[in-house]
């Protein structure tokens, strides 16, 4: 069963690369559980999850303690779900109490990792450290969902694009086939305030231009997803955006039913019919 799941994961990656080469990108619905759920709650979530068709990639980023148990359930149910870690240390190993290396995350079942989430940036993680984290993750073959976003003060001052361009510099050396970007305006995270779909599309189009500048020959491999109070009620609006390739979902991802609704909104974007 473990071998079968690994083969399926490999096939998904090959499909992603083929679509990227053709200028198409598979939508991505990523759940960031943050510091929520026990092993029992995680198991109940996976048993209840109906992923629907295969036109949208599904990632779940649980607390690291849940990775091995969730991997076993995903394999048993043959769910098309990729496990994503919430953070990674920039060093290979050593005297770093409480930290987790990229190799450990892979061993626990993760295939991807969040880097640069605003709640990590608030802990003082700057560009140099985030670059080192991303490079360490890439060295171990973990796909990176790199989070960027402006604060409310930066937004009010009209500095959004300058801030995002600067933040993107940290991943300029990451292979494009291992990189996705999440735009998460800090003022919208966990506040119930979400960027309007037109505003989000405008910013995503700007990020797409920056990605093309950094990766002129491989920019089609990089997905750009929106994160910031995404809910079942507004997911379809974001899915309509030409440059919005998916969503990074916080609170609405903690319950299978609401996360499914968001997945299905982006499946319509990625389906054969549109």
Main traits of this protein?
globular, 14% strand, 274 residues, eight-stranded parallel barrel, alpha/beta, single chain, TIM Barrel
Can you walk through the features of this model?
- The protein has eleven helices and eight strands.
- The protein is of the alpha/beta class.
- The protein has one domain (2-270): Aldolase class I (TIM Barrel, Alpha-Beta Barrel), CATH 3.20.20.
- The chain has an eight-stranded parallel β-barrel, surrounded by five helices.
- Strand 7, helix 10 (235-239) and strand 8 (246-249) form a beta-alpha-beta unit.
The class by helix and strand makeup works out as alpha/beta
CATH level-1 class: Alpha Beta
Overall number of strands: 8
Domain count:
1
Question: What number is the mean pLDDT?
Answer: 92
Compute the separation of the termini in Å: 33 Å
Tell me the CATH topology.
TIM Barrel
Query: What portion of the residues fall into strands of 2 or more residues?
Result: 5-15%
CATH architecture: Alpha-Beta Barrel
Question: What is the number of helical segments per DSSP (H or I, 4+ residues)?
Answer: 11
CATH superfamily: Aldolase class I
Rg from alpha-carbon coordinates = 17 Å
């Amino acid at each position: 069963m473990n071998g079968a799941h690994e083969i399926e994961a490999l096939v998904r990656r090959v499909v992603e690369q083929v679509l990227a080469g053709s200028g198409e990108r598979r939508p991505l619905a990523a759940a960031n559980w943050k510091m929520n759920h026990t092993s029992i709650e995680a198991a109940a979530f996976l048993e209840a999850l109906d992923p629907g068709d295969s036109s949208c990639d599904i990632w779940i980023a649980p607390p690291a303690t849940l990775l091995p148990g969730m991997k076993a359930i995903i394999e048993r149910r043959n769910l098309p779900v990729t496990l994503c870690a919430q953070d990674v240390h920039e060093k290979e190993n050593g005297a770093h109490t409480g930290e987790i290396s990229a190799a450990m995350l892979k061993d626990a079942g993760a295939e991807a990792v969040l880097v640069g989430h605003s709640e990590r940036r608030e802990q003082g993680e700057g560009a140099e450290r985030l670059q080192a984290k991303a490079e360490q993750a890439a060295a171990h073959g973990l796909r990176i969902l790199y989070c960027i976003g402006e604060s409310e003060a930066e937004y009010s001052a009209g500095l959004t694009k300058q801030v995002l361009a600067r933040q993107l510099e940290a991943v300029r050396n990451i292979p494009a086939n291992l990189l996705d970007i999440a735009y998460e305006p800090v003022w919208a995270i966990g506040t119930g305030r979400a960027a309007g779909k037109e505003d989000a599309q405008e910013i995503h189009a700007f990020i797409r231009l920056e990605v093309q500048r950094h990766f002129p020959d491989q920019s089609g491999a990089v997905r750009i997803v929106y994160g910031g109070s995404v809910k079942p009620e507004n997911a379809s609006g974001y899915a309509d955006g030409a440059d919005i390739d998916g969503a990074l979902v916080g609170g609405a991802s903690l319950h299978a039913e609401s996360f499914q609704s968001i997945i299905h909104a982006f499946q319509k974007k990625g389906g054969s019919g549109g």
